[in-house]
Amino acid sequence: MSADLLGSHTVSTLQTMDRRYHVTTFGCQMNVHDSERMQGMLESLGYRQAESRDEADLILFNTCSIRESADNRFIAHLGEAKRLKTEEPSRVVGVGGCWAQSVKEEVFQRFPFVDVAFGPGQIHKLAEFLTSESLTAQGFFEFESFSGHLPARREREFQAWLQISQGCNCRCSYCIVPSTRGREVSRDPTELISEVNALAADGVREVTLLGQNVNSYGRDLDKASRISFAELLARVDAVDGIDRIRYTSPHPKDMKEDVIRAHAELPALCEHIHLPLQSGSSKILKKMRRTYDRQRYMDRVALIREHIPDSAITTDIIVGFPGETEADFDETLEVVDEVGYDSAFTFVFSPRRETEAATLDEQVPHAVKRERMERLVALVQKRAAERSQRFVGREVEVLVEGQSRTDPTRLRGRTRHNKAVNFDGIATPGDLIDVGIESATSQTLSGVAAKPLARLFR
Ligand code: SAH
Ligand code: SF4
Ligand code: F3S
């Protein structure tokens, strides 16, 4: 029935019954998963997802503050929310996540049209706010609990996030996260494994364990329930139906041999390790308070190559940290060349409020940062393109995700090494199939699905 066939009274009744939300997510996988929890919670309250912001009764932003560019990106979107709120004052505008946490009540001073603001530990308060009678703006910023008890709305039925811990006890001098997500708290392993069992029963084949520093998992648990990260991986691996396990992010300082061995021993644990380098210069690593030096980092890489020679290794690198000289930057280039990363996230250093690095002398001029970034990206891509060639001529297992983004006649999926693959073939999202790789670039592989018959006679 079209809207103009409905009487005005019916329309307004429909509007109150049929509430719709729109969420925009910025930042890391933590936020992506937090948004899934928000969506699950809203749907259990009877909200439905709106296609666009202007169709929504509840406009939400899940914010990030890791770099200044993240702040700016989000603030640019707020203008539209303000306009929509002015047009229809009954709309609710909510701001969650790390930016909200880092500025707290200032959210309301800077953006008076915001109705509710909450930090990453306070997602459940959104439901409380929406179901309360109160019309006054409210902020919730305690570090209180996990959102683990909230239902999640997964983007794909066969892939899921599993938040194993929240917060971070490290003190990396550039990083805002300890102040936005609080001290590290690990979730109980029994609760985690029952969550994985429930996910597997619900069709999940690939699970990604999430935490700011996943491999320090468990240290804060009491003795009776404490297990190590490697043991947790083994328990997840033992769950029937889980074909792939990933995790992000580990810290090189806590990357122990048991976790590396687990990659060789546990069938579901993928051949991919994300090992954030940040800088190749021991002097800069010290100023970053990373608590490892170049040598120790390279030892971890050697251990990975010893146990899982073919493993993909990826990383995060910051360019232009205060005091980074040309010689320090050269050391970063040397490590990138030596390791041969399968891919790397590269960031220009961004001074963050209330972090030590923002106050350090010898800030690197912007033009120098940009120029170093260009050289770094060129080397990362060159090495990644070279590394990719090892897959050409091989048959690799692909978890099918859907249609190729560049060519709708082809399919797209991911290998265990976390490489994106575009391929010809017939398959359904969620299938695990073998794909023969014919060509490779730094970012993606291209190939053809292996025929089941060919596999039979191999
Ligand atoms: N806990 C994870 C992820 C932290 S945020 C870890 O430690 O690996 C993701 C990445 O953002 C970091 O690894 C770092 O490379 C980058 N980053 C964090 N703070 C930054 C800043 N102030 N400027 C530029 N990059 C930053
Ligand atoms: Fe930030 Fe360091 Fe913690 Fe990662 S380990 S979240 S970079 S403080
Ligand atoms: Fe993630 Fe950004 Fe917060 S990277 S932890 S959402 S500051």
CATH homologous superfamily heading of the largest domain: Methylthiotransferase, N-terminal domain
Number-wise, the strands total 19
Q: What small molecules are bound in this structure?
A: S-adenosyl-L-homocysteine, iron/sulfur cluster, FE3-S4 cluster
Per DSSP, the total helix count is 15
Summarize this structure briefly.
The protein is an alpha/beta fold and 458 residues long. It is 36% helix and 21% strand.
List the keywords.
about 450 residues; alpha/beta; Rossmann fold; Transcription Regulator spoIIAA; 6-stranded parallel beta sheet; 5-stranded mixed beta barrel; disordered N terminus; binds S-adenosyl-L-homocysteine; binds iron/sulfur cluster; binds FE3-S4 cluster
Written account of the structure:
- This protein has helices at 8-17, 29-44, 68-87, 98-103, 106-110, 124-131, 177-181, 189-201, 229-237, 257-265, 282-287, 294-307, 326-339, 366-388, 452-456; strands at 20-25, 48-49, 58-63, 92-97, 116-118, 138-140, 159-163, 165-166, 185-186, 206-210, 244-248, 272-274, 312-319, 343-348, 395-403, 411-415, 420-424, 432-440, 444-449.
- By secondary structure, the protein is α/β, with parallel strands linked by helices.
- The chain has four domains: 4-140, Methylthiotransferase, N-terminal domain (Rossmann fold); 154-269, Transcription Regulator spoIIAA, CATH 3.30.750.210; 271-388, Transcription Regulator spoIIAA, CATH 3.30.750; 392-453, Nucleic acid-binding proteins (OB fold (Dihydrolipoamide Acetyltransferase, E2P), Beta Barrel).
- β1, α2 (29-44) and β2 (48-49) form a beta-alpha-beta unit.
- It is globular, with a radius of gyration of 24 Å.
- The chain starts with 7 loop residues before the first helix and ends with a helix.
- FE3-S4 cluster binds at residues 27-28, 30-31, 64-66, 97-98, 176-177, 180-181.
- The site of S-adenosyl-L-homocysteine has 17 residues, from β13.
